[in-house]
């Protein structure tokens, strides 16, 4: 059985941006991971993303997957994310995997250097990713070098398994989901909206229930987890 070890490497404040650098290891060996930016609220940390990414974003294309929001009544965060990418000068290529043909999913994921997955219902999102084969297509692209940007539910599905999110999202929204095994892009479990209304109590309940079992990584709306190779950092605006 593998054990995931997180070691604090450095704590620094640079221009008001707090960073806590962490290294991931499996049984004491460094774990190599792709580049990911996992946020609670992308619009709130888009400036942090711009500083961290290390390249000119203007004119670059991002595949924008809003599917998780399809079951939700409150969806303002989707438009906020669109505006945040537009402000960065990026071109948005919309892709709702729940309705797009398989060929379109593969084509769009392959055409853009950035993949963004929005917030919403984590269980519905995973159901649709698996049903359409978009999960394997995303994995292939990320392992090939594409950057993955997750927001809320989009961050949670980067974990190995999403069952821990039941206190935050309604799993009944995904009646066709037969397994909670997720993308497994990281060996830890992002916990978005930590300390933020209206998810504060849900996040606290998840911590109380799973903290001794899972490698939870709580982040507030003002934070994000940036993963680059074998190193992950908690960044704050």
From TrEMBL:
Name of a matching Pfam family: Peptidase_S51
One Gene Ontology biological process: proteolysis
Entry's InterPro entries? Answer: Class_I_gatase-like, Peptidase_S51
Indicate the secretion signal residues. none
Name the SUPFAM superfamilies on file. Class I glutamine amidotransferase-like
What residues form the membrane-spanning segments? none
* A molecular function (GO) term: serine-type peptidase activity
Alphabetical keyword list: Glutamine amidotransferase, Hydrolase, Protease, Serine protease
Q: Which family does it belong to?
A: Belongs to the peptidase S51 family.
What is the protein's given name?
Answer: Type 1 glutamine amidotransferase-like domain-containing protein
Instruction: Please give the organism.
Output: Teretinema zuelzerae
């Amino acid at each position: 059985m593998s054990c995931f070890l997180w070691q604090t490497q450095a704590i620094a404040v640079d221009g008001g941006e707090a960073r806590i650098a962490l290294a991931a290891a499996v049984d004491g060996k460094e774990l190599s991971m792709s580049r990911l930016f996992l946020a609670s609220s992308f619009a709130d940390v888009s400036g942090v993303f711009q500083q961290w990414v290390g390249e000119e974003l203007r004119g670059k294309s991002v595949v924008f997957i809003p599917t998780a929001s399809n079951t939700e009544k409150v969806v303002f965060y989707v438009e906020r994310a669109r505006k945040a990418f537009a402000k960065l000068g990026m071109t948005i290529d919309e892709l709702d995997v729940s309705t797009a043909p398989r060929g379109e999913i593969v084509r769009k994921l392959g055409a853009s250097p950035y993949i963004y997955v929005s917030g919403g219902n984590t269980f519905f999102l995973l159901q649709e990713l698996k049903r359409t084969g978009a999960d394997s297509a995303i994995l292939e692209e990320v392992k090939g070098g594409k950057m993955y940007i997750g927001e809320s539910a989009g961050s949670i599905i980067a974990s190995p398994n999403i069952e821990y999110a039941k206190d935050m999202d309604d799993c009944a929204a995904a009646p066709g989901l037969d397994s909670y095994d997720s993308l497994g892009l990281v060996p830890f479990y992002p916990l978005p909206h930590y300390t933020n209304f209206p998810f504060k109590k849900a996040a606290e309940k998840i911590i109380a229930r799973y903290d001794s079992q899972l490698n939870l990584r709580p982040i507030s709306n003002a934070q994000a987890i940036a993963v680059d190779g074998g190193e992950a950092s908690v960044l704050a605006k």
